[in-house]
């Protein structure tokens, strides 16, 4: 599957290394040294299939750029940054990133994560095209006026007549939980199944994406009833009847 990639990185050497590695993986690569340049490119040419972005950029920082991208696009975003403390990792994920890689890094780690992203992208395309989703339409919350409905065949989630816009990762996470209502999924299991990279993923990623998912699908995100926490074990999806 041919895919387009944008690299937002102000270090020429890092950007060149990433470009060469991603071109070897079959991507068509666009580059930007600054966040403002990247955002103009998205406005003029539309969103790529994947974005790789540094946090420390001249001018607008990476956190702000991610939030700006997320306002209009659900494209997968991978952060590559030397800022590796817990606050920065969580802040990047909360801003809308899907994954976080710490500098210095091995190019093979980036290419492995990109292959995982491509598998998720291919899964979404094939599920919509072949009419054989991994689970059927599911009513997650039978609210009498605005039911919450997951429809994998069309790749959508609706509350009443309004479509809820989820990122690819949020959507895959919801589908995984909804595939087995009432089952408790550990963070490690969700990381391996949704991100396809349990061997080097960070479980904090799961917690942050669960929080973001709740803000979109729960009636009251501060008191979640659909995606619930099972203390010490993980997460469970409860159908609301």
Explained architecture:
It is a single chain. The termini are far apart. The strands form three sheets. Strands 2-1-3-4-5 form a five-stranded parallel beta sheet, with helices on both faces. It folds into two domains: 3-121, Response regulator (Rossmann fold, 3-Layer(aba) Sandwich), CATH 3.40.50.2300; 133-237, Winged helix-like DNA-binding domain superfamily/Winged helix DNA-binding domain (Arc Repressor Mutant, subunit A), CATH 1.10.10. The chain is globular, with a radius of gyration of 18 Å. It is an alpha/beta fold and 241 residues long. The model has no long low-confidence stretch (mean pLDDT 87). 43% of the residues lie in helices and 20% in strands.
Question: Could you provide a short overview of the structure?
Answer:
Helix content is 43%, strand content 20%. It is α/β, with parallel strands linked by helices and 241 residues long.
Strand order of the largest sheet: 2-1-3-4-5
Helix content: 40-55%
Q: What is the CATH architecture descriptor of the largest domain?
A: 3-Layer(aba) Sandwich
Structural class based on helices, strands and sheet pairing: alpha/beta
By DSSP (H or I, 4+ residues per run), the number of helices equals 8
Averaging pLDDT over every residue, what do you get? Answer: 87
Q: Secondary-structure element sequence?
A: EHEHEHEHEHEEEEHEHHEE
Radius of gyration based on Cα positions = 18 Å
* Strand composition percent: 15-25%
- Shape from CA axes? globular
Biggest sheet features:
5 strands, parallel
Organism: Nocardia acididurans
Keywords: DNA-binding, Phosphoprotein, Transcription, Transcription regulation, Two-component regulatory system
Protein name: Response regulator transcription factor
InterPro entries: CheY-like_superfamily, OmpR/PhoB-type_DNA-bd, Sig_transdc_resp-reg_C-effctor, Sig_transdc_resp-reg_receiver, WalR-like, WH-like_DNA-bd_sf
